[in-house]
Amino acid sequence: MKAPAGPAPEILVVDDDEGLRLLVSDCLRTEGYEVAVAASGAAAVAALRDRRPDLMLLDLQLDDMPGSALLEALRKTDRKVPFIVITGQGDQNVAVEMMKQGALDYVMKDAAILDLLPSVVKRAIATLERDRSLASAMSEKRALEQRILELGETERRRIGADLHDGVGQLLTAAELMCVGLKDDVAALDARLGGQLGTIAGMLRDAIAQTRALARGLAPLDEEPEAFQNGLTELAARAESIGRLKVRLDCRCAEPLRDRAAAGHLYRIAQEALHNAVKHSGATEVLIRWEKADGRFRLDVSDNGKGMLRSPSDGLGLGLMQHRADLIGAKLTLESRPGGGVTVTCLLPSKS
Question: Crossing angle, helix 113-162 and helix 190-217, to 10 degrees?
């Protein structure tokens, strides 16, 4: 039962029993693993300053410190290593408790240890490799999803620019022509002049709708304060509908310079506000933007009737969660029956 093909995994054996340490080391080397040893907890800590083995075999009862104390010391210095517990007779309950705290497996110090150890180690290494492969696949998936969203945002900005600079300009030119013709035609035919005035008014409405569409497709500009400005315009537009009062409480003067994060946070605020308008029956919404404890915080709170369905039932909520995941933010939803909903998004600051 040899180690998997490729670079041999490195295993650190931490045990104060010299005889057992030698036997275990020889057994693992025979299986094709690279092996390092430490005769105490202090020696293990020192060894892990300079190396990061794939797996650690840890005796729970070291002379200078309990195995649990060694693990705690490694956690504090961010030198955590996957581990298997080596325990003596009668300590099975302790070993099981250590597995609850992260141990991959355990082996007993008895006559069968050298027979069982290779299969236990191989199983642990295979588990670690599966976890790494899964983590890599998930990372690639998130990168692909991020790229797809970025392409979508780029295309929306392009369409928004075409609407504003192309269609919008043509409509404006047509309106000006109608206004210019109206006075000339009205002198000859009042009815036709009135119709031209009506057409000019319709064109003005079309221009306003085109600009609104363009702004909705590309709500944030290139300025450092684009996110705060976008929230201000979002609140103003929502309130202009006349169905509810929207207040913006912007307590963060620091600009959000990460454009991808700004775009996703804006869409989260937009979706939360849309839900409040469409589903909650709210009369007031508060949008709060602040920074505290090294994190940006976005809250959208309403005074509506609360969430009547499971959050998983709403596609909009799923999209908000997806956007938060892509930028490494934490999204939470608090529903208070009869007291409204608060959507909170916490984004770690990179500064």
Answer: 160
Residue 165 exposed, middle or buried by CB count within 10 Å (0-12, 13-18, 19+)? exposed
Q: Which single residue is written with the structure tokens 């537009």?
A: 237
Token duo for residue 111? 């006559």
Q: Distances in Å between the alpha carbon of 104 and those of 48, 222, 271? A: 19, 49, 42
Radius of gyration of the chain (CA): 32
Question: If we measure between CA atoms, which residue out of 209, 179, 182, 203 comes closest to residue 193?
Answer: 182
Mean pLDDT in consecutive groups of 10 residues from the start of the chain, 351 residues: 66 92 93 93 89 90 87 83 82 75 85 90 92 88 78 75 79 84 82 86 85 70 82 87 86 86 90 82 90 92 74 67 89 83 91 61
SS3 sequence, the chain?
CCCCCCCCCEEEEECCCHHHHHHHHHHHHHCCCEEEEECCHHHHHHHHHHCCCCEEEEECECCCCEHHHHHHHHHHCCCCCCEEEEECCCCHHHHHHHHHCCCCEEEECCCCHHHHHHHHHHHHHHHHHHHHHHHHHHHHHHHHHHHHHHHHHHHHHHHHHHHHHHHHHHHHHHHHHHHHHHHHHHCCCHHHHHHHHHHHHHHHHHHHHHHHHHHHHCCCCCCCCHHHHHHHHHHHHHHHCCCCEEEEEECCCCCCCCHHHHHHHHHHHHHHHHHHHHHHCCCEEEEEEEEECCEEEEEEEECCCCCCCCHHHCHHHHHHHHHHHHCCCEEEEEEECCCEEEEEEEEECCC
pTM of the model: 0.53
Q: Is the Cα dihedral 146, 147, 153, 157 positive or negative?
A: positive
pLDDT on residue 1: 47
| Contact present, 47 and 40 (Cβ < 8 Å) | no
Q: What is the dihedral of CA 61, 18, 76, 327, to 10 degrees?
A: -110
